[in-house]
Each structure stands twice: as structure tokens, then as C-alpha cells.
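Can you give me the bound-state structure? Components:
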Amino acid sequence: MDFYNKTGKMALGSRLRRLSEQMTEQAAAIYDLYQVDLQPKWFPVFYSLLEQEETGKSIMDIAREIGHTHPSVSQIVREMAAKGYVTERKGETDGRKNFVLLSPAGQALRQKMQVQLEDVTTAIEKAMNETHHDLWKAIGEWEFLLEQKSLLRRVQEEKKQRESNEVQIVDFLPEHSLAFKQLNEEWITTWFKMEEEDHHALDHPKEHILDKGGHIYMALYQGQPVGACGLIPMEDGNFELAKMAVAPSAKGKGIGFLLGQACIEKARSQGAQKLYLESNTKLKPAISLYHKLGFHKVAGPPSPYERCNIQMELRLD
Amino acid sequence: MDFYNKTGKMALGSRLRRLSEQMTEQAAAIYDLYQVDLQPKWFPVFYSLLEQEETGKSIMDIAREIGHTHPSVSQIVREMAAKGYVTERKGETDGRKNFVLLSPAGQALRQKMQVQLEDVTTAIEKAMNETHHDLWKAIGEWEFLLEQKSLLRRVQEEKKQRESNEVQIVDFLPEHSLAFKQLNEEWITTWFKMEEEDHHALDHPKEHILDKGGHIYMALYQGQPVGACGLIPMEDGNFELAKMAVAPSAKGKGIGFLLGQACIEKARSQGAQKLYLESNTKLKPAISLYHKLGFHKVAGPPSPYERCNIQMELRLD
DNA sequence: TAAATTTGCGTAATCACTTACGTAATTAAT
DNA sequence: ATTAATTACGTAAGTGATTACGCAAATTTA
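Here's the bound-state model for the whole set.
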């Protein structure tokens, strides 16, 4: 297929499907050649039953083993039973189960298939010797890769990384005032309600944060402010990380992490030894972000905010 | 999938199918992630249309390019047209054709997909870097292999070779008399009718062939006689290859070839310089077997057999 | 120039799976 | 000891491809 040389890797799925369909079609002809009355789709079930257990295997056992869904196995078993190759038996201790066993006729098929399986195996192995890249092993590796981390997850990570490269962390400017307020109001009102303290800091960031020796970083994505985070000086010379907010529409770009990193660096450069923060355990993603940044839970001084039920800190030395 | 480590290579088809199904499922989720309103199955068609030709592409053009059947393309195009991503136009010079073109809406999708395609490609390429065996290239190689020679053909060859190892070529014994006659009668009566000469040779092989210095080989498969072939001395000191017969049930085991080889060797050891035979062009497989054995067409002396319309010979020196 | 064959493509049926859903049996939680 | 959740499995419907078939247009052959 020349076509797939042009599309590139993203057509991997389509390409695989085409190849597998070709092979299944050939398989049917091969069963014919050996006059084995077995449909290719039965093969995994049949093979699973060869490993004979006295009591047979339940539908779910087989499904799990061969990696199909149970309705698929159920249907295949019904078809095989109609041909007399398997017998079904209700579970004695567990009445829901349906134990499937190869019948004598099924056992006879096994004999007949023996030669076929050998021929097919040699044919495929000979073909494989003509290739440089081992399809069999490659499939195995991909099954493993996808089990570890789905393709979706892999693409999500790629997206996140690309987008976070497009995120700029900049110092707060007067023109960010409105965005700073809105971003914070948004998350506070979705989870809690605005408190007295919030209004002070959000309406007058210059007076309440910057002029007191604090700092504010803004995150810009495609030029638009989509995140904010403040450093507020504490009495002991350290800083509190506060007013961290990211627009919901800009989630998944690693913006919180970038803002956090910027703040940590700033605090360190200001000679702080610790970074402190207050949050709420309801905010799971936030807490896990703080963990990722290196914060850990501490028992701190009482907070002026009602919504605070967890306090964390990060040692900078 | 542990299971497929037990089944061995013959489950290659089943295994491929499972992997491709997993990937297609993931693909759908990925389109969702980028909010691209495109079904994974549309991808090959869509991609083919990106390579824009002013006039569009006909259904068959697309089908051939992406390696699907035309009904599949036809249906996908219908679905895409319903969403407004493509426009259809009847052929002007050829009224049967249906030219498909990406609509402006389709063009817009292309823009939107650009980033997604890049992310997916990098994700897959990164995953591929974690593997030792290149799935992409392996698939390409297999597509090529199967195009050259189908899996069925490969298995057939394997079967033939294995079975021909189980074929024994033995000298004629009195106990083979009946088989010798029946094997020959069978093919003669299916194609022609028995002639005077046939009865002589088949009823009394000893007198008409062996005692005159000729020779007969029998082919045994699983102990049963399934083929025969005679060498009849000619006046010029050479031999005629005749009475070659193989049971229809034993076709495809290379028996004819083995019998032919045995006869050729015998003739050579008897000091013959040429081997001669008479046949009929209706018997295509036989003629091609003779060619494979090295015979070529000649104009020989008139034959006593009515059914003879081709004469061949093989030089032994 | 008429008849036969080939080609393009749409519709319907089929295939080998899947999800969705329902029922009954078993196990866990309150 | 109920109630709730889980598990086993069957049936029905859906999915993305395929073959089978039929019609009409175009091309080849007689």
C-alpha cells in the first residue's frame, strides 16, 4: 500500500486493520484446504479449550484468556455447540456459570488440525525469515506499550507539552488587573464563596500584594491571560503561595506547574527558606499539583480563610 | 496478550485484529480530544481528498488509492456529505462517475486537524522509539510479501512439500496390477474413452511393458498406491513415457513430478538418449508437468492413440 | 451498427466483532 | 437480615468493513 507511505504513522490503526482482514480471509481458505470444519473466528476459543481442564472452562474464563468480550465467546460457543464440537454444562456450585468442554468430535478435530497448524506455522515462519522487521515481536511490544499507557494518554501528553511550550509566564502588569480578578473569582465561586479577604487582594493587588514586597505572575496562552499566581510575603521573611488560578478552558496545558515553578524560583531568589500555602482537600487536582511541585502537608498557623482545611509547605534550601 | 505466546504464529491474524481494534477505539477518543468532528473510519478518504485535484476524485479512484472496496468508500462519502464536508458532482464526460471534492467546511477541518496529526505522529514515533522491532516497517514488509504470494499459496506449498516427503516411489509388483489398471482407467475415461491399445497394456502390464524391457513405477502415499507411470522401450533404443496416472484424491502432492523424475533417471541409467511421450493439449496440468520435467514439443511419428495431439521429448545427454 | 462485455457505483445483505441492556445468582455492606 | 453491589452470561442492536447484485453508461467485438 503506497498510500500509507504518504499518510504517515497516524494511519497505523487503519493499516493494521487492512492487513488483519487480508489474513483472516486467507485463513478461511486454509481451513478449507485441509477440510477442517472450523471457522477462523472460532480458533482462539478452540485453542483455549485444547488446554483441557477436566471440568471445562467458563465463558468468562475463555473471554479473559483470549481477550474477547464475553458475548463474543458466548456466541462462538453456541455455534460450536450446534456443530457438536463442544458441550456446555451449568455450574454446580455457581449456577450462573456455563462450563464449556471440547466434545469427542472436538477432540477429533484437534487431531485433524495438527498437521495444518504445523504447515501454517512453517509457512509463516518462512515468510518471516524474508523480513527484516519481526511483525510478531513488534505486535507484542505494542500490546505491552498500550497496556502500560494508552495511545490516548500518549497523545494527551504530547498535546500538553506542545501547548505548555506556548505558555508564557510574565510579571503582573496593570493591564492584567481584570483578568487576575476574574480568574480567581471563577474558581472560588465554583467551589466556595467569596470572603472578605478575597475582595481586598483581588480588587487591589498592587496595594495588598506587590507594594508589600510580594509578586504576581501571569500565564499567557496565545497572548491571552489564562492563569495567575501570587507570592505574598509573610512575617517570618518567607512567602505564601496564593491566588493560584487557571482558566478552565486552558486546563491540561501544565499552566499550574509552570506558574508554581516560576513562584518557587522567585521565592528562592528572594532568599526565602520556605514556601507556604493554604488549600482545601476538595481541590484534588490542585493538591496533587502542589505535591508534584514538592510541597508537603504541615500544621501551620490558623488561616483567615474559611475554605482552608490543609496547609502545605516547601523547603527551599 | 499472554495467550498469543502459547498459540504461536498461526494466530497472527487474530492477534493483528485485536491490536487494530484497540487502536481504532483510541483514535475515536483522540479525535474527541481535539474536538475534530471526524470519524476514524473517514480518515483514509479524508486524507486522500487533501491531495486536492481541481476536479475532485472519483469513488473508484479513492477506493483504489486507499485499498478499500468501492461500497465502503461510497458509504463513507455519503456520511461525510451529510455532514457537509464533501461535495459530489456527476462526471460530465462519463456520466457514471461521481467526483468527490472537499467542501470549504472540509478544508476548515484540515486546518483544525493539522495540530492533532502532528501530536499523534510524535506520540506514535516516541512509542516506536521504545520498541526494538519496527511495527510500521514490519507491516509494510508483510503487505509486500502477501502481494507477492498469498498466505494460502505459501501454506499450499508447505503442504505439498510435506506430503511429497511421504510419497514413496516403488517398482511395480504383481499386487499393484489392479491399482495400475484402475488409476489409468480413471483418467482416460474422464477425458476420453478407452481404446484397444489401452486394454492390452493395462490388463497385461507384465507382457506388454515389463517383459519387453520396459519399467513401471508406482507411487505410494500412506502405503496406498496413488500413482503410476510406465517406461516402454521403443525401437530406437529409447523409451516412451506412458501410462502416467495420479489419483484425483492425491493431487497436489507433487506425485506426478516424483514419478517423472524416477522414470527419467531409470531411462538414463538404461543408456537412453531421449525420452518420448504422447499427450493431449486438453490436459493442461499434465503438459505443464512435462515442461517442468524438461520435455519440449516435437513432431514425432504418428501415434496409435486417437487422443494424442501433442508429442514431446526430453534429451537425456 | 447491433450485441456483448466491461466499468462505475449504489443498495442490500453479511460478517466478526463490539457496546448496551436485562436477568439471575452470588457476595459485601449496613 | 435486608439491601446494595458485583458477577456471569445471554440477547439485541450497532459498527466498519466486506461480498453479492443490479443498473446504467461506456467500450469492445462481431
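A couple of observations. Chain B touches chain A through 77 residues (CB under 8 Å). The two ends of chain B are 60 Å apart (CA to CA).
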